[in-house]
Amino acid sequence: MATLQDIGVSAAINIVGAVSFLLAFAFLRIQPVNDRVYFPKWYITGSRTSPSRNRNFVSRFLNLNPLIYLTFLNWMPQALKMSEHDIVSHAGMDSAIFLRIYLLGLKIFVPVTLVALLILIPVNVSDGTLSFLKRDLVVSDIDKLSISNVRPQSSRFFIHIGLEYLFTFWICYLLYKEYSIVASMRMRFLASQRRRVEQFTVVVRNVPHSSGKSVSGSVDHFFQANHPEHYLSHQAVYNANRYAKYVIRRERLQNWLDYYQLKYERHPDKRPTTKRGLCGLWGDHIDAIEYYQAQIKYLDKRMAVERENVIKDSRSILPVAFVSFNSRWGAAVCAQTQQSKNPTLWLTDWAPEPRDVYWSNLAIPFFSLTVRKLVISLSVFALVFFYMIPIAFVQSLANLEGLERVAPFLRPVIEMSFIKSFLQGFLPGLALKIFLYILPAVLMVMSKIEGYIALSMLERRTASKYYYFMLVNVFLGSIITGTAFQQLHSFLHQSATQIPKTIGVSIPTKATFFITYIMVDGWAGIAAEILRLKALVIYHLKNMFLVKTERDREKAMDPGSVDFPETLPTLQLYFLLGIVYAVVTPILLPFILVFFAFAFLVYRHQIINVYNQQYESVGAFWPHVHSRIIASMLISQLLLLGLLSTKEAANSTPLLVVLPVLTLAFHKYCKNRFEPAFRKYPLEEAMKKDVAERAEEPNLNLKAYLADAYLHPIFRSFEAEEEETIIVQEKADKQEQSHEASPSESELSSPSPEHHAEEPELQAQAHAHAYQYEFESSQHYYAYHYGYDQ
Amino acid sequence: MATLQDIGVSAAINIVGAVSFLLAFAFLRIQPVNDRVYFPKWYITGSRTSPSRNRNFVSRFLNLNPLIYLTFLNWMPQALKMSEHDIVSHAGMDSAIFLRIYLLGLKIFVPVTLVALLILIPVNVSDGTLSFLKRDLVVSDIDKLSISNVRPQSSRFFIHIGLEYLFTFWICYLLYKEYSIVASMRMRFLASQRRRVEQFTVVVRNVPHSSGKSVSGSVDHFFQANHPEHYLSHQAVYNANRYAKYVIRRERLQNWLDYYQLKYERHPDKRPTTKRGLCGLWGDHIDAIEYYQAQIKYLDKRMAVERENVIKDSRSILPVAFVSFNSRWGAAVCAQTQQSKNPTLWLTDWAPEPRDVYWSNLAIPFFSLTVRKLVISLSVFALVFFYMIPIAFVQSLANLEGLERVAPFLRPVIEMSFIKSFLQGFLPGLALKIFLYILPAVLMVMSKIEGYIALSMLERRTASKYYYFMLVNVFLGSIITGTAFQQLHSFLHQSATQIPKTIGVSIPTKATFFITYIMVDGWAGIAAEILRLKALVIYHLKNMFLVKTERDREKAMDPGSVDFPETLPTLQLYFLLGIVYAVVTPILLPFILVFFAFAFLVYRHQIINVYNQQYESVGAFWPHVHSRIIASMLISQLLLLGLLSTKEAANSTPLLVVLPVLTLAFHKYCKNRFEPAFRKYPLEEAMKKDVAERAEEPNLNLKAYLADAYLHPIFRSFEAEEEETIIVQEKADKQEQSHEASPSESELSSPSPEHHAEEPELQAQAHAHAYQYEFESSQHYYAYHYGYDQ
Do B743 and B753 contact (CB within 8 A), yes or no? Predict the structure, then answer.
């Protein structure tokens, strides 16, 4: 068992780690050369450009203003400055709602921590059973502060039960309030949105094959017949996976060409050479620039042929279409009703935003979807339950007695008290973290196989798989296998009433493990997030080898985005830990509080300055967050029930049975009351926007507006791309001139709010820029949307 | 343990019982005086009228044709004569689909029985462990034919597992076929239906209160704004519960008046008297006819006042409306989308048929619905799990050893071998049956409290509650408490892997109990169904005391209907028994087969000749039937898994684990593929019917057609009723003249199929008649629709 001293060592290590990350960040962010790593968002919104050329050479790379170094932590207050309203227009609704989760965590846990510490710690300490039993049990100091310290059959358990009720009601109250705020934010956002193509468009899958008619023909015929007053046009979807591969290969060649051209420019005396063989590793030396130019030319020809093929060959038209309507009302009706007698044909759903579409999955037929879902749910089950074994193995190593038995030669090292504390405090959390590192990628691939057609949906599904994984492996796995791996088998053969008991009893003893976990994963992890080490290194490498023009520098910039599939489940795990331990071992709560506060600051900073969201789902993840916090409450209630029943608190325990029922009823009510706001689009809203628009722009040519909105991205030819980029670039330049108040690079503060006063305009611009960015980083785009590795 | 001899006795009793019921039925049904009890459906469709007056007195009551008595079982072939297509038009889709369930039972169990008997019985018998163990265990002869007789670790279990796979695949195949047939029958029926008010109508609940506007006003405003091209009109709903009570009281007074008037007519010399006090039991003697006439007059006045009140008082308008559209497409859109931003307001759903509306529940607000559902689901849980205790008590009495201990003075009687067999064979089933008798009424009240607004929905919900009850109490309860009531407690504390073992082991030993149950509940119960003893007695009582005119006689006739809340769960229980025992104790299967065959015949006869459905849900119950048969398969697989794991069949058991997964996947696929046909209305269909209708009747005044369709039934005044009745009566007479081929009463055969040649016409007439019948028996109607006792 870890003692308070172990925790102290671990805390020290993690705090030192976190602080050094922060110092490094504070130093690196104010160097102009790193500006595009730490403030890419401002480049994308167009309020910042590269350091002007009129400065001296050094100051373009290093910040020489000594005053700046004195205020190196000022990013924290700056992160708090921007109002929520501005964040919505600056970074989108998803980011704003994401931040609200951390705020919710603070709102929940600040009062809970105060109450729990002030009431429970005195109650637990004063009943001191554990000091009497000390000879038999090895208990840590922390256990003396926990519920384990209360005598069996004590009537003090009424206090714990009372607090569990109190906390449940408090959390439910906050959840209800938050859900209603988020739902109305979503509604308001949707209502205030300008005209967007996805409001008028429905994706139709499983278009049936009818002989003698093309897919386009039957789509036209079907919707003209069944939505005569609303159908406008449709966009067929081509199976261009092979063409997309060519695009990616061409991008790669272009990168190499750029690299060699740059090399040649810098050393004009020596033409760069390469080798003909695999990856330029062997073969004859040849002129690199000529070689890559020839390769690209050849590829361009093949691409032209392939493109002709795709467009002309009717077999490459998939039985999928994006159908557009002449009103939001018509689209809302079509998306939310069943079209055909056969419910597996003409499946309609809201079209995702064009940048949110995952094109490869559009062609999966209905039957295949059913099979895929079955296969993937079985695999997720297997993954969740058999991943446990290696983790348990590593953790049993981190159990020092076990380690000494396995490797007796290590004993002298392990017995050194500092190293012992280090191992016990640091290793178990770290082992887990490494295992978890590769997991999201695996889960994302699984979700892609399941066949969802929107990236946002894919991310949500991945997040939900990841949550199950964390729940079983991090939470339950650590509690059960941590004490004894052998318990696992017996656990599977226990009765339904026995399981909460087994877990409930181990819960207090695991508090120290979770405290370390919070510090390693939470504190240090968040500090690493703000440093962006990986992005920093990659940017500088690209800058060194590839960047020739301003546009290349834009391209080398990788703003990233909130990593929902990973951060949401992690967050939910912290909620679970906080809620479960609130009554059992309240000393864990301050650690969670620090995590929520710190993470809130860091993510606020990152969202304002760094991240650029790939899509806008308008908080579609909120119902999941909500229902998982409720699940956490249920788990905590069941475990407390199990724990108390082993404490022979027969007179107080039955009081707890009502609580899960009430919690479930609350969940059901919230689901009915608020979830439709996230899943459906009310006709009243659609009609209101239609009417307003018709009054405003009676002569709008909607058909022209919608044409090509859902064109497969690879058919936007490179020429068109170039053109568009230039146009957007011009606009951006103009805008920059108009925004003379834009913060200078040396100031390095986040821009003042007045930039966001003309909201719709700015939003539209941001949108245009997002597209521009997308075109420019098309290589990333294809890789992301097609799941190919580059 | 019951032996084969016990079963023989029980079978004999039940067969004698069933045969005597059948004989009584055969005798009673050919008496003209009972004609309206056994052939009411033909009176309702209008192809039969009362025995003509030109016969002699005796032959109006007794059938004197001796030839008829020789062919007294000829109802059986007659019941099979009518084709399914004719049944649909004669008795409705629900009845036709209901019969298909029995047919499905036969299709499933005929091959399963053959295969199981031919393969498993030899396999089980020849392994004879039980004969060796006879001294230790008291085993019945039936156990020797069951899986209990196979040696532990025997490789013969591969045969059982193989057959479980085979049966599962066979059942899945049939279920798939059946689901697709039923779905397409439903689709075809809906497509071929003539214009009906519910196709154009949507029920809107939770209309929000807006100040300064009436409910009607805001409904008009909302739908004109949001469905401008489709909204036609709406019908407000009045809270007329008190008025409905008056209507019922008036009916009761009218009955007494009729009774006394009849009495006076028969004995004109003596005016009947009654007493003024409660129920005419005490008080002064007064002239009965005058008294009731005065009472009715007084009530009529009060009713007129109340009616004015309801119509004028704006508070009696409920926040509910029936909204009509000018096309099926418009109604389908409105019913299947969310209207308002707030998902608890403007809740739209398909309007039930006018005769299917349960008016009292229309006014329940959203929040109250959530609470009601919670409360009722808790009560159902309590009912299902604590009803077990009295049943277990009675069954432990029926366990003879227990009975002798409780009442030792009974020993001499019990020890008589015939009585012993009788008690063991008959009592347990009977005890259960009596308990189950009052249950459906209780469950129906619960469903009404839950707040469903259609009678068909109420019946389906009741059926589902009843199914859970049967599953836990009849199936599990009999298996566990039957052997030892004490097991119940230990059962709650067993692990998830232990529970199937415990039940699985008891399963073979309970085969005899279920065989008796099938005979008592199934065979004798069905025979009692055809006899209609209760309806017979009540009809003759009414005939004696109340009937004056032809119309009164119509009114006294109670055709009843298929009692879905009770028959569906019962049926599903038989499927469960058959599927569970198919591999374990195949000797049970022939009993199930007999049940399905016999019940099929009886219900076919009843549906053709007796029942008159209250509503038409077009087979909306099928998804439940389907999913419960699938649940039965899952239960059987789990129990077999448990049973085999106690038989130490370690090499064969793991093979079974795949089966539940496959079954679940099949269920999921079927649900996605077919269930939308029962829950949604595709726009394609709606549009097709709209277009066809517009082409056919371009000048249709839909508004007039829909006006008053959803008028609260009590506002159809009595005068209007009388008028309508006369009109319909005239029509019926005309129709009768045109159908000269109608079967004469002495023939007593079901009418020849040509009556159903002109289908739509006949259907429309049947519909009209159904309404006529409804008006006439308005007392029944109100009681049914308001849940009041008469």
Answer: no
Q: What is the mean pLDDT of residues B207-227?
A: 84
Are the Cβ atoms of B338 and A336 closer than 8 angstroms? yes
CA distance B695 to chain A (A): 15
Give the tokens for residue A313: 């060959």
Tell me how far apart the alpha carbons of residues B561 and B98 are, in angstroms, rounded to a whole number: 12
Place of tokens 């209780």: B442
- Identify all chain A residues contacting B346, using CB atoms and an 8 Å cutoff: 684
CA distances, B210 to each of B216, B227, B421 (Å) = 11, 20, 72
Q: Tell me the β-bridge partners of A347.
A: A205
| CB-CB neighbors (< 8 A) of B677 in chain A | 341, 343
Question: Which amino acid is located at B774 in the chain?
Answer: E
- The torsion defined by the Cα of A130, A134, A139 and A141, in degrees rounded to 10, comes to 70
Chain A CB contacts of B187 under 8 Å are 341
- CA-CA distance, A610 to A749, in Å (whole number)? 13
Q: How far is B188 from chain A (nearest CA, A)?
A: 10
CB A119 within 8 A of CB A110: no
At residue A408, what is the residue type? P
B29-78 per-position pLDDT tens digit: 777 777 777 777 777 777 766 554 455 555 555 666 666 666 666 777 77
What gap in Å lies between CA B668 and CA B765, rounded to an integer?
41
Residues of B in contact with A333 (CB under 8 A): 333, 337
* Collapsed DSSP state (helix, strand, coil) of residue A321: strand
pLDDT at B778: 42
Cβ separation of B682 and A497 shorter than 8 Å? no
Question: What are the chain B neighbours of A227 within 8 Å (beta carbons)?
Answer: 683
pLDDT per position as a tens digit, A73-122? 677 777 788 888 888 888 888 899 999 999 999 999 999 999 998 988 88
d(CA B656, CA A207): 38
CB contact under 8 A, A341 and B496: no
- Dihedral-angle region of residue B514 (phi above 0 means left; psi in -120 to 50 means alpha; beta otherwise): alpha
Is A498 within 8 Å of B495 when comparing Cβ atoms? Answer: yes
Instruction: State how far residue A187 is from chain B, nearest Cα, in angstroms.
Output: 8
* C-alpha atoms less than 13 angstroms from C-alpha of B244 in its C-beta half-sphere: 23
Q: What are phi and psi of B232, to 5 degrees?
A: -115, -60
The size of the A-B interface in CB pairs under 8 A is 129
Of A332, A493, A682, the CB nearest to B341: A682
**For A188-211, what is the HEC assignment?**
HHHHHCCCCHHHCEEEEECCCCCC
Are the Cβ atoms of A339 and B682 closer than 8 angstroms? yes
What is each CA distance from A143 to A3, A130, B122, B469, in whole angstroms? 9, 8, 64, 47
Nearest to B582 by CA among B158, B107, B146, B8: B146
A139-148, A637-646, B141-150, B632-641: segment of lowest average pLDDT: A139-148
Contact of A585 with A146, CB cutoff 8 Å:
yes
**The residue to which tokens 């479980």 are assigned:** B164
Mutation target for B interface from A222, A226, A487, A658: give the one with most B CBs within 10 A: A226
Cα separation, A706 vs A328, in Å, equals 13
With an 8 Å Cβ cutoff, are B370 and A672 in contact?
Answer: yes
Alpha helices (H) along B139-156: 141-144
Cβ-Cβ contacts under 8 Å for A707 (sequence gap 6 or more): A233
Rounded distance between C-alpha atoms, residue B570 and residue B521, angstroms: 9
- State pTM to two decimals: 0.77
From chain B, pick out residues whose CB is under 8 angstroms from the CB of A378.
661
Q: Which amino acid is at A670?
A: C
Q: What is the rounded radius of gyration, in angstroms, for the C-alpha atoms of chain A?
A: 29
User: Which distant-in-sequence residues (6+ apart) come within 8 Å of A34 by Cβ?
Assistant: A28, A536, A539
